[in-house]
Design a protein that fits this description.
Structural class: alpha+beta
Mean pLDDT: 75
Number of domains: 2
CATH architecture of the largest domain: 4-Layer Sandwich
Helix content: 10-25%
Strand content: 25-35%
Low-confidence stretches: 67-71, 80-140
CATH class of the largest domain: Alpha Beta
Number of helices: 7
Distance between the termini: 42 Å
Number of strands: 24
Length: about 350
Amino acid sequence: MDEAPSWYLAEGGKTLGPFTKAQVVEQLQAGKASKTTVAFKHGTTPQWTALGQIGEFATAVSATAKVPEIPRPVPPPAPIPAAVAPPAMAAAAPVVAPAPTPAPVFNPPPAAAPSVPQAAPPSVAPAVPSPAAAPAKAETSSALEYHVIGAEAQCVEVDLEPGTSVLGDPSMLVCCDGDASIENGSASFLPSFWNRRPTGRVKLVFGGLVTGAVAVLDSRASGGAVWCRLDALLCCETSISATGGLKTIPGSTHGEGIVLHKIEGSGLCFLQAGGRVLRRRLGAGESLRVDSACLLACEARLEIDIQHSGEGPRMALLKGPGVVWLQTHSPSRLVSRLRAAMRPQGA
């Protein structure tokens, strides 16, 4: 199983993440984070802590700390002015020409020394600010600005610029600014939330029905098509559509089956997951058996078959290559167990 993203970084008043440990290391190596950047992971850090004080990133922090320390050449303080003076005196008073005979021997080395500070400092100075400016250019591959909030019970906050919109499920909306407009479009499968302000952003917050995590799927990294549970979709970019068809997968017991919708397009999708999100990448020829109630989403290129034997549970068999997203706690499975416990005996 791939490590689920669970690290959050905060810098400049913004919270970024979640990231895997490897992605945090990449942020350090790319100069987008430093030893003073604060991080948080539930169960690992009791509070926001600088990366330089977290043991898991000690090696990465110490490696990146050495990069900016570029030695700057320093010209000799005394010999250079002393050596430059004799040629000016010789030009002003040619009568002293026999005396400076040693000067031509000493003069060429100092002439090369001034060229060192002239060439080296310009090449070093512009290189110092460039890593600090990098994070402001690309925090995410999408133009949509969002923040996943929380650790165990997560929600997603979306910031809309004037004249922009996002598709969302109104039943999953926690709150929004009072002048955000909700419009039903005939071409979209979900209502649109618009920012009609001439200036200023509009904030929207979407949350799930159960305690769990928010999975962020980028359809561009999945070939533009993903099978996902539409009842788990919180919101998505307007470039996403769900006209690709339906796929029904029976569950282990009655009432646990799911319906997958094929969403297509180029953009971000935010899904609610019960418990934690597990991400598994299957190579060509690899397969994975999954309880359908725990299947959250998968890339459309995966093959999905149903396996069952006699009275045993029905499982979804996923065949690679492709990526699968799973939830560890299924709301439908909990409901079916409660329903069975409340059913009168003998009924």
